[in-house]
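Intended use. Records like the one below are meant for learning the mapping from a protein sequence to its folded structure. Do not use them to infer anything beyond what is encoded.
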Amino acid sequence: MEGSIQQKESKKKNNKIIPIVVAVAVILIAGIITVTALQNTSGKEDYFLAEKNTVEQLESAFKERYEDELLWLEHSEENAIESTLEITGQVNAPELASMGYDQIINNANITIESAIDKKEKVSSANISAGFSGIELSGIEGYINGNELYVGLPFLNDIIQLNGEDLGRILHEIDPSSFTGEEKIDFTDFFTNSSLVTEDVEYLKEEYVDYLYKEIPEDAFESESEKVSINSNDVTTEKITFHLSEEELRTILQNLFNKMAEDERLREIIIDQATYMNFASVELAETELATFEEDFVSELELAADRIQDVAFPDGFTSVIWVNDGIIVKRDLSLTAENVDNTTTGGIRIEGTNAVTDNEQQIDYTVTVTEDDTEESINFSADLSHQDGETNDIITLSMDDVNIVIEANQSGLEDGGKSFERMLSFEEAGANNIALHWLGETNYEEDQMTADHTFFVEDGMTINQDTISIFVKETGSTIDKVEVPSPDQVKNLSEMSGDEIIEYFETDVMSQLEGWMMNLMGPGI
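Structure written out for the chain above:
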């Protein structure tokens, strides 16, 4: 009986290894090492150089289409920028007109004024709105380093809070729900990623370079082969990357052990977890400790159980290369328990036809688990010539298609007009499409844009039914202004009881007075 129970537990543990093995093998072996720049011309180096060139070609195509936007983004990374968004709407729907809602929407407006200096870690935002003759203003917020400032229309003070004091305040107000360890780093608002340069270099040296060295030179074979790409015969270099079952198992086992013992890696992953959790509060120390323990134990388990996983066909990735770019790919991996109770696998196959002005991509990813099989198809028809772009990207799965269309052309004043559409198509259901039309003009230190958004269902809803208009302006400024100390009420200098008293007396009384004035004497 005891042996039977142990056997069942062993099978459960083995079943957990299959998806880990498949994911790590494909991502780490077939993907992450493509960022390494190689200069020689062996089969191994040709393979990964082709991967690198293909990624860079896609990046170049993206930059070519959105050069102005990327230059403005780069400018805003180095300079203080102020922006204004003016949002209005237009409704022409009988069902809304009968209740008078159309006039409310048609005469409503929202204005958002913001400023940001990413280098100095300072930002501000001010929101005002008007509807039905009521004007609302005074909603404002600021971030200065790790200090948050919030202003409300009814409040004389601007509330200030330091992110380091959040846990202490929450714990004093509600000790049963908060530990006091909670905190927010508002400076994360100014970073695009929590991965710093030192972390990226560490991961490259410890894992990218490590995996590249672990893969044997004789795992690669090259030959010339003519293939058909979009009905065109293309002469290519066919490079086959194959690891035997034992080679793959050894690489994965060493990798899992290396990751389990790597304290720096755990620190980087924890930093990423707290960065992604910024919208709420940082993870408490107890949660981080549990996460770290689970991370190590799962990797140790994976390394220990890898011997119980069979790779009947090893790992195989074949690429066909023309002019340094991958034009065809076929990657496959199958993993199963030695007792054949669980099987998982992945296959990636497709083509990538690139010419001077056009590119057609057609890839299918198929994932199998036991007797089930799921496929996702990604296709792209891209065209860019003389400043005019016509792109269609489609993601298909079962009876659902997600389609992105992006068309743009240049204007005489140096700006450009564009039309973008995101549509959801499902068999037997109404198809929904979100349209985004606009004109933009980017100069060295300023920009203007006009946007129109509307939804279309092919039946009753279209651009005439309801549309949203956004007028945007942006310009460079010297610095972002923040409130002076005599304007603020600093919660970080108050105890939990003092904060409760402040909100129950000052804040509530000012709110009640403001509401009475807003609603008028008839209330």
